[in-house]
Amino acid sequence: MLIKATKCTIIEWDAEQGRAVVINPGETDRLADKLAQPYVDAEMAVEVDDDAAPADDLAEMRAAYQAALGKKPHHSWDADTLKAKIAEAAATEKPDGDQGDGITAHVLDENGEPIDPPAGDPNDPPAEIADENGGADSAPAD
């Protein structure tokens, strides 16, 4: 039976499918009828029409998600969730095609222009501090 969780997360071991099924509120997944019916009866889930998201459409959306984001989608996501995730990724995509977290940090000079970070290992102390201490590798004087 295809069900959509409404009030709580449903976690069951479905021996017929040989897998654990986790359905978060608002998500849809297939669960054996004998396991799903108590959730439907208790109004913690609703039965979803099998034709609502055809398997072909879902398979196409999973392939589109993997092509767009470079990783496999979660097995419990329905076609609508996949569409939303793909749209969200497209909205945060950088102009050069690189996907990132949407946050870009720049160090600016006194005129407000971005400057490149200094070359070298960021863990090394600046040269003026190393020189004051007698070099970065020198032992402290007694």
Sheet with most strands: strand arrangement = 4-1-5
Helix content percent band = 25-40%
Total helical segments: 4
Q: What profile does the largest beta sheet have? A: 3 strands, antiparallel
Q: What is the terminal-to-terminal distance? A: 78 Å
- Low-confidence stretches at least 5 residues in length (pLDDT < 50)? none
Instruction: Give the C-alpha Rg.
Output: 27 Å
Number of domains: 2
β content, as a range?
15-25%
Mean pLDDT: 77
SSE run: EEEEHEHHEEH
How many beta-strand segments?
7
Shape descriptor reads elongated
Structural category: alpha+beta
What this model shows, in words?
By secondary structure, this protein is α+β, with helices and mostly antiparallel strands. Strand 6 and strand 7 form a beta hairpin. The strands form 3 sheets. The chain has a 3-stranded antiparallel β-sheet with strand order 4-1-5, covered by helices on one side. The protein has 2 domains: 2-47; 54-109, no CATH class. The chain has 4 helices and 7 strands. The model has no long low-confidence stretch (mean pLDDT 77). Helix content is 30%, strand content 17%. Helix 2 (55-69) packs parallel to helix 3.
